[in-house]
Amino acid sequence: MADPNHIVTVNIVTPDGVVYDHHGNLVIVNAIDGDIGIMASHEPIIAPIKISEVRVKRTDDPHHEDAIAVNGGFLEFSNDLVSIVANSAERARDIDLRRAQYQKQKAEETIKTAEEKHNVDDLARAQVSLRKAMNRINVSSHK
């Protein structure tokens, strides 16, 4: 059983390097099968994660929660270490909201064009781009 008095280390890594490395009391991740909440002493787990927000309740301030936009990947937890490997990830404070809104608009335009032309490949790529942009926009509100 998880012990809220213990901490977990949370690392989020992308091909560009470490995006996040802190301690927390609780980590919430949206896995393919649903949300997972991880506290210290949780059973070891490996899970694929969706394009979603990762939330970390920090140990240094009980009222502070970090939000990180993660664009898929996988999570591994063992020995009180949460490791997330993702193609890309951004902390809320680092998200350029104007750029994310522009990417959302471009994805919506591409979706409309792809639907009109019945181009399933472009449609699928644009839908992923839209999910990524929406995730960044949502996470950016947690600055």
Automatic annotation (TrEMBL):
Q: Where is the ATP synthase epsilon subunit C-terminal domain?
A: 94-140
Q: Domain named ATP synthase F1 complex delta/epsilon subunit N-terminal: which ranges?
A: 9-89
A GO-annotated cellular component: proton-transporting ATP synthase complex
CDD domains noted in UniProt: F1-ATPase_delta (cd12152)
Q: Which GO terms describe its molecular function?
A: ATP binding; proton-transporting ATP synthase activity, rotational mechanism
Domain of life (superkingdom)? Bacteria
Q: Which Pfam families match?
A: ATP-synt_DE (PF00401), ATP-synt_DE_N (PF02823)
> Is Transport there in the keyword field?
yes
Keyword ATP-binding (UniProt):
no
Q: How does it sit in the membrane?
A: Peripheral membrane protein
Which InterPro entries does the protein's record reference? Answer: ATP_synth_F1_dsu/esu, ATP_synth_F1_dsu/esu_N, ATP_synth_F1_esu_C, ATPsynth_dsu/esu_N
- Location in the cell: Cell membrane; Endomembrane system
Query: Mind listing the UniProt keywords for this protein, alphabetically?
Result: ATP synthesis, Cell membrane, CF(1), Hydrogen ion transport, Ion transport, Membrane, Transport
Q: What is its main location?
A: membrane
Q: Subunit composition?
A: F-type ATPases have 2 components, CF(1) - the catalytic core - and CF(0) - the membrane proton channel. CF(1) has five subunits: alpha(3), beta(3), gamma(1), delta(1), epsilon(1). CF(0) has three main subunits: a, b and c.
Q: What does this protein do?
A: Produces ATP from ADP in the presence of a proton gradient across the membrane.
Q: Which family does it belong to?
A: Belongs to the ATPase epsilon chain family.
Protein's name according to its UniProt entry: ATP synthase epsilon chain
Q: Which organism is it from?
A: Companilactobacillus nodensis DSM 19682 = JCM 14932 = NBRC 107160
Biological classification of the source = Bacteria, Bacillati, Bacillota, Bacilli, Lactobacillales
| Name of encoding gene | atpC
